[in-house]
Write a structure and sequence with these properties.
Elements: H1 2-21, H2 28-35, E1 41-43, E2 49-51, H3 56-61, H4 69-72, H5 108-113, H6 115-121, H7 130-134, H8 154-159, H9 163-171, H10 173-180, H11 189-193, H12 213-221, H13 224-229, H14 236-241, H15 244-250, H16 259-263, H17 283-287, H18 316-355
Antiparallel strand pairs: 1-2
Length: 358
C-alpha cells in the first residue's frame, strides 16, 4: 500500500511540475496589477525616481499592441518577478527572415560601431539603446506623427540627451522651417548625422567630419531648385567648391574652413539675423577663430562670399572673368587659324613642287 501511495505521489508531483513548466506566460492584465498604477515607481539609492507605470492605451496604439509583455521582457516567467530584469533585446524579433514579420532593416552592426554603441559597450549606461530612441511601449512606424523617430519628433528625441544642440537647432533656419512650419524638406538630426551608424565628427568616416560636411550639406544645397525654394539666390555648394577653401577641402584638408566652420553646425541663421555667425558684424569673429584668420578685422566683412563668376551679381569679378574668357577664346581661335593657314600654305607649296617635278 505504501508503495502504491508513493508511486501516486511521485506521479502527481511530476504532473504538477510539468504543468507548471508548461504554464502560459503572465498576461497583460496580471502585469497591470502593479504596472497599471500611476504611482508605481522605484527610488534608487541616489534619490533618482524611476516610474514603472505602463499606460495600456498607449501600448494599444503601438506597433507592438498584439504582443504580450513577456514577448519583450523574456526573463519574466512568473509574478512577482525578480526586481532586476535584463535589458530588452530587440534582436529577438528584428532579424532577417524572422517569422513574426518584424521589420528586418535594422542596422545592428552599424549601431555597435557607432559612438552610441561603443559607449554602451564601454559600460556607459546612459548611452542609448533601441528603446531610448524608438520608445519602450509607444513604438510607432516612422511615418506615424506619434513616432519618436519621425521627422517632426526626432530632434526632440535626440534633445533628451543633446540638450544644447537641440536648443540651438530649434532656433536655426532648419529647426524653424521643420518644427515651426512643418516643412518636411528641412533637415533633422538624422539627415546630417545618420541613424544607427553615427560616428563622432573627429573620425574621417563620419558624415559630419571636416572633410565630409560639404558633401553632407550638398545633399540639399547642391540643388539650385532647392535653394531657390528657400530664397537662397546662389548655389552655395558650387561656389564653395570653386573657392580656395573648397579646393583645399577636395584635396583632403581637415584644417580648412568648411560649411560648419562659418555657418555653425546647429545654430544656422540667416545673415540678416544679428545672432548669425555670418552677420556682417560677426564676420571678423567668425573668420578670426583660432587656427583660421586670427586677427581678422572689419575689412573681412566688406568682402564677398560664395562668389559665382558666371553671375553678374558678382560685380567686377564677372566682367574680369568674362574678359579673360573672351581673351582665351580669341587667342585660341587666332592660334588655330594661324596654324591652319600655315598648314595650308605648306600643302600648296608641296603640291607646287610635285607639279614641277621637283
Amino acid at each position: 500500500m505504501r508503495v502504491v501511495l508513493a508511486t501516486v505521489a511521485a506521479l502527481l508531483a511530476a504532473a504538477a511540475s510539468q504543468a507548471q513548466s508548461a504554464a502560459p506566460a503572465p498576461p497583460l492584465r496580471q502585469c497591470g496589477i502593479c504596472h497599471g498604477r500611476h504611482e508605481f515607481k522605484v527610488v534608487a539609492r541616489d534619490g533618482t525616481v524611476r516610474p514603472l507605470f505602463v499606460d495600456e492605451t498607449v501600448l494599444a496604439r503601438s506597433v507592438h499592441a498584439r504582443w504580450q509583455c513577456v514577448d519583450c521582457h523574456a526573463d519574466v516567467s512568473a509574478i512577482p518577478h525578480p526586481p532586476n530584469l535584463g535589458v530588452v533585446n530587440c534582436q529577438r524579433c528584428h532579424f532577417p527572415g524572422n517569422p513574426v514579420g518584424a521589420p528586418e532593416d535594422v542596422n545592428y552592426e552599424g549601431y555597435v560601431k557607432s559612438v552610441h554603441g561603443r559607449l554602451r559597450a564601454a559600460g556607459n549606461t546612459k548611452a542609448p539603446l533601441c528603446q531610448d530612441c524608438h520608445g519602450g511601449h509607444d513604438v510607432h512606424k516612422r511615418d506615424d506623427p506619434h513616432a519618436a523617430t519621425g521627422k517632426l519628433r526626432l530632434a526632440e528625441t535626440c534633445g533628451r540627451c543633446h540638450l544644447e544642440q537641440y536648443s540651438q537647432y530649434r532656433e536655426s533656419v532648419h529647426g524653424q522651417s521643420l518644427l515651426g512650419k512643418g516643412n518636411l524638406q528641412a533637415p533633422t538630426c538624422s539627415d546630417c548625422h545618420g541613424e544607427h551608424s553615427i560616428l563622432p565628427p573627429a573620425e574621417t568616416a563620419s558624415d559630419v567630419s571636416a572633410t565630409h560636411i560639404p558633401e553632407t550639406c550638398a545633399a540639399c544645397h547642391g540643388s539650385m531648385a532647392f535653394n531657390t525654394a528657400f530664397d537662397i539666390p546662389i548655389n552655395p555648394v558650387k561656389t564653395f567648391k570653386h573657392s580656395f577653401h573648397g579646393i583645399a577641402n577636395e584635396l583632403g584638408s581637415a584644417r580648412v574652413a568648411n560649411c560648419a566652420s562659418c555657418h555653425t553646425a546647429h545654430q544656422v541663421l540667416p545673415p540678416s539675423d544679428p545672432r548669425s555667425s555670418v552677420n556682417p558684424a560677426n564676420i571678423p569673429a567668425t573668420c578670426g577663430k583660432s587656427g583660421c584668420h586670427e586677427g581678422a578685422n572689419a575689412n573681412y566683412a566688406r568682402g564677398r562670399f560664395h562668389i559665382d563668376p558666371s553671375s553678374r551679381d558678382s560685380g567686377v569679378i564677372y566682367w574680369v572673368a568674362l574678359f579673360f574668357k573672351i581673351l582665351t577664346i580669341s587667342t585660341m581661335v587666332g592660334l588655330i587659324g594661324h596654324i591652319a593657314l600655315d598648314l595650308a600654305k605648306k600643302i600648296r607649296q608641296r603640291h607646287g613642287r610635285e607639279a614641277r617635278g621637283e
